[in-house]
Each structure stands twice: as structure tokens, then as C-alpha cells.
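Me: I hope this is not a bother. Any chance you could explain this protein sequence and its C-alpha cells? It all follows right here:
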Amino acid sequence: MTIQKLEANALPSDTLAYGSIVLLGAALWALTTYFPAQMPAILPYQFSWLIYLAVTLSGLWFARGLRRTAPGDRVSRLRQAAFWTGLVLLWGVTQTGFEYLAQRMFFTNRLQHVAMHHVGPVLLALSAGGPVLLAGAPEWLRALCASRLVIVIYRTIQQPVIAVILFVGLFWFWLIPPVHFAAMLDPVLYQVMNWSMAVDGILFWALVLDTRPAPPAWLRFGWRAALAVGVMFPQIILGALISFATVDLFPYYAFCGRYFPSISAVTDQQIGGIVIWIPPAMMSVLGLLVVVRNMRAANADL
């Protein structure tokens, strides 16, 4: 990727850009802290500085990276749209009124996690936006990402077996009933759960949907296809187990009060199980099709 030199006035200064982000974040924090009842549903239910900075800085660095990249080397407008859609989706399920619903119904909680672990990360991976983000990121962050320690850690967790264990294991782990109950009640553990879903989803789908042949990519297309399909079946099993359960497996939602009291615990679980069952399977099928398409575009074999 060719990086263009910018004119001094091509982009707002770092001080203006980062200062604007901080001021906007402070305003959102103040509104959600002191006027929570007056907040519209499109604004945060529980403001998180970490999520806010992750989303806004990613957006800033992606936009800046596009400006710094030579026109012929920029990702397509379709891939750019995938990036922005994925970023907005992750924001929408964590920093709007939907977050309240996700804490009051099991099936909306599952919708949130499917968005964070599958749909949003798939869109971000389809954007092939990693190099663009790094092009727009500060020099210290580019140096950190290129450091030996970070590369070793990244390559370790991106080994096929480890990647599958993390992807499937985390999804199952947070749905162990006692673990889920504790995570939904503990604010810190709740954030750990959500962050693990989003970060692991991004890492996994970036590995599977990498457009490059191997090398320079680490896995051949055959491995990527196997990963996309392999993670589908454990999630189908999990969704089926929850859908066909006849007892309340997740009493947290009764404890805190369901947003829709007319929906029983078992019905809530049945809907949630279907959410676990079908959309992730669809993402795996989509992932497989994208892998095949990337393989053909690269004129590579399995």
C-alpha cells in the first residue's frame, strides 16, 4: 500500500481531531450521567469511554488512512461501506438504548452477541481495513503493532486450533448458566464478556476472510474454508440445546425483570436459541463463499 504525503492542511490537526473526540465524549458522559431519563434511544444507555474511544478512533484512523493512501491502492467503496456499517453496528448494540434491552431479555442479549461476535466482525473483515487503519494511526501504534512481542502473540492466537477453541469456547463459556448469571450482574465481568466477544470475533473473521493468498497470509484458503465451516456445528448444537430446553436456564432475566413480561422464560430461551442457531450458521456459509471467491480472485488453490 502506497502512503501519500499529506499537505499541511489536508486534514485537521491531531489536536483538533482528538480534542473534538474528547469533548464529544465528555458531553455524552455528562448527559448519560446527569440526565439518564431524558436520553433518547439512539444515545448511550450506559456510556463507556472504552467503547466510545475504540469506535471513534477507529473511524478517525480509517478515514485518515484513506486520505493517506494513493487513490489506486485504496479499498473499494463497497469495502469502505462494509467497514462503516460494521463499526456502526457494534456501536448500535453497545452504546444505544439497545443495550438496555440486551440486559432485560435473553433473546436480545443473544442478538447483541451475534452482532458483536459474527455480523459486525464479518463486515469489518470484509472491508480489509487493517492496513488502512494502520496507515491512519499514530506512529507509536504502528510501531507497537510491528513489535516482535505483538507479532508473536498475534500469530499464536491465530493458529487454527487456538482460533477455533477461542471462537467457539468463548461463545459457549459465557452461556454456562452460572457464568452468565454472574457476568450479567457484575459490571466489570459484563464488560469483559462483551469485549471478549467483539475482539475475538474480529480476530477470527479477519483470519478467515483475508483476501491474500498464503504467503503472505498465514493460512491457505483450504484452512480458512475449514475454519468457517468448522465453527458452525458447535454453535448449532448450542442453539439447539437452549431452544429445546424446557426449564429456565438463565434466571437472571426473571431476577431483573423481563422487558416483555408477556414472553415466558422458556419462550425467551427458544427465541434466543434460534438466534444462536441460525444467524451464526448463515455467517459461516457466507464466510465459506467469500473464502472461495477470494481463492478464485487470487488464482490460488486450496
Q: What stands out?
A: The chain has 15 helices and no strands. Residues 77-128+141-297 form one domain.
